[in-house]
Amino acid sequence: MTRLLRPVPEPDLPRILPVILAGGSGTRLWPLS
């Protein structure tokens, strides 16, 4: 989890942001993105 807290490259942001914003629901969008 500490890795997610660290600053990630901009290209990776669009992948992680929706997951954090959606929370548990974000895991469902993971395979789609």
Task: Report what the structure shows.
It contains three helices and no strands. By secondary structure, it is mainly α. The longest helix has 10 residues.
In short:
With 33 residues, the protein is mostly helical.
Structural class: mainly alpha
Distance between the termini: 20 Å
Largest sheet: none
Helix content: 40-55%
Q: Quote the beta fraction.
A: under 5%
Order of helices and strands: HHH
Shape: globular
Question: What is the averaged pLDDT score?
Answer: 62
Total beta strands: 0
Radius of gyration: 9 Å
Number of H- or I-type helical stretches: 3
Report low-confidence residues grouped into runs of 5 or more. none
* Quaternary organisation: single chain
Summary tags:
single chain, globular
Outline the fold blueprint.
Blueprint: H1 2-5, H2 13-22, H3 26-29
